[in-house]
Amino acid sequence: MKLAVVGGGGRQASGTIRDLGDSLDVKSIVLIDRESAKAQLEQRAKDWCRGKAEIVCCDINAHDDLRRALRGCQAAANCTSHVFNVQVMNACLAEGAHYTDMGGLFHWAREQMKLDAAWKKAGLTAVLGMGSAPGIVNVMGRYAADLLDTVETLHLRDGIVNFTKTDAPLSIPYAMNTVLDEFVANCFIYEGGDWKELGPFARGEEIDFPPPVGKQTVYATIHSEVATMPVAFKSKGLKDMSFKLALPKAFEEKILFLASLGFGARDPITVGRSEVSPRDVLVALCDRLPRPGGKPDDHKVLRVDVTGTQKGRACHVQVEVVCHPYEPWGMACGPFTVGFPVGLTLRLLGSGVIKERGAVGAESCVPPEPFFRGMKARGLDVTCSIKYPVIQE
Questions:
Q1: Per-residue pLDDT tens digits for 128-159
Q2: Which fold has domain 136-331+379-387?
Q3: Assigned CATH topology for domain 2-131+334-377
Q4: 21-57: buried (b, 16+ CB within 10 Å) or exposed (e) per residue?
Q5: Parallel, antiparallel or unpaired: strands 75-78 and 98-101
Q6: Statement: the pTM of the whole predicted model exceeds 0.85
């Protein structure tokens, strides 16, 4: 199997590369990024890829160059920003390679879904959003929905805590641009059989997660699951669906403060004689922060609650996984649970396990059982509970 990682120098790509490097069925890994990331790619190839990595530096906006970099690959992942998802998809489609990415928030995912017919016609699969959320939660939602004859509600909850000791003023769980979008962009829920737009960080809800995450307040934020899952489960009668997130409290408070000052804005402002984007300034400053040292101590719970009917009985299915740092790689929970599922999905695509074709969310094409087996091999145990009312109406 020859697989490609676009944006191989990024932090979240680290879990993807480690997974591919450790997988015996992967014979060749193409690490693709800008020229400025070449030293990082070379170090990762040396440390993680067991002599099977090829490094290609190119501008991913240069369609022909990216096509050449992907040539001969069975599948590729975009591990750069979601704003490049369509460009990488188009290059993969032209080269006959399957595709996945780390999510497209809401609007990007909808644009990607418009390419579904072209991918079906080519006999290829584009898995839209394959980290922890979106990604793992989508497959858990598929597993729960498959247990039911009808589906009425589907709710995703993601609780994150971070106890890692660091001197840095900000410990960022994933790409800062994505974090800022979640804090400043309007979000969507699916309610009463249609999408509803809400303000950012809407409808707070207290959830008592298993330890060490514990009790957290989760909020609706802009995410791609809400774009894809109502489409996937419409035929089962889905009426209400939402995604809500709780980030580490200290981090959340700092980002809310920075966003209130305007640092989430992209439009330039005049500072002295220069025009600068507040967001670009903040992202650049965050890129200069030292990475947390010492032993990682961040944790996450992913929970999916689905209600519907099974053989005429009302039924509630809850699927859950508790995630921790991955000790064999010395990797924090964040990059592990975002990056590793991408590697696993690339392997399932390249080996032909994923058979559904088109540009769709993971809930429509990733078979839960082999995916969960791959998770268990990396220490992630998915659990499921099913409840029925004692007295049926």
A1: 999 999 999 999 999 999 999 999 999 999 99
A2: Dihydrodipicolinate Reductase; domain 2 (3.30.360)
A3: Rossmann fold (3.40.50)
A4: bbbeebebbbbbbeeebeebbeebbeebbeeebbbbb
A5: parallel
A6: yes
